[in-house]
Amino acid sequence: MMLTNTMVMLFSFLFISSAYSKLSNKNYFIKSIKEYQILPVFMVKPAAILIVVVEMLSGLMVLIPKTHGIGLFFMMLLLVSYSSAIGINLLRGRKYLDCGCNGPDNRTPISVSLLLRNAGLMVLSCVLISMNNIFTDTFSAWIFCVLMSCFIIVSYGGAKQLIDNYKKMLARHSH
Predict the structure, then answer these.
(1) Residue 159: is it exposed, middle or buried by C-beta count within 10 angstroms (0-12/13-18/19+)?
(2) pLDDT (tens digit, 9 = 90+) per residue, 113-129?
(3) Which residues, 6+ apart, have CB-to-CB distance to 118 below 8 Å?
């Protein structure tokens, strides 16, 4: 149960932080969606707004016991949409596109590994949806879950920063 609660909090963090990043770099995110060449141009901006809203709401919904299943379902829909757009462009041979997840400072090219990551997140969200008793543990279990979530968030941030620093180091040495 504690692991389940921790995973729900991690999903919440991932989607809320992703929405925040997109909102902070909205013009870049709109440009990223446009570069996928899947939507007609007139739908790009409304789609960008919808994605950010759904990411933020689903990240919050998973924290509320009565809506966690709906929040996870919306997360799965987003992941399926992202994976479809990535897969279509990989099939088109367009591997240079930024996934649009992290803003202009942390470009992540689309790849099969992103598809596998999304598949793993979709499987995990299915498992979490199937569990009916999320968030019913004792107060001490909640404390543990919060601490574990903080550890995972700090570890994720640290790993992301190491990758970003490595990319910058490679870029400096290539000049």
Answers:
(1) exposed
(2) 888 888 888 888 877 77
(3) 79, 82, 83, 86
Q: Which residues are CB-neighbours of 59 under 8 A, at least 6 positions away?
A: 11, 12, 13, 14, 15, 16, 19, 71, 75
Quickly count: other Cβ atoms within 10 Å of residue 1's Cβ: 14
Q: What is the pTM of this model?
A: 0.74
CB-hemisphere CA count at 13 Å for 150? Answer: 6
Token reading at 8: 């729900």
For residues 113 and 99, is the Cβ–Cβ distance under 8 A?
Answer: no
- For 31-48, give the DSSP string: HHHHHT--S-HHHHHHHH
Number of Cβ atoms within 10 Å of the Cβ of 15: 25
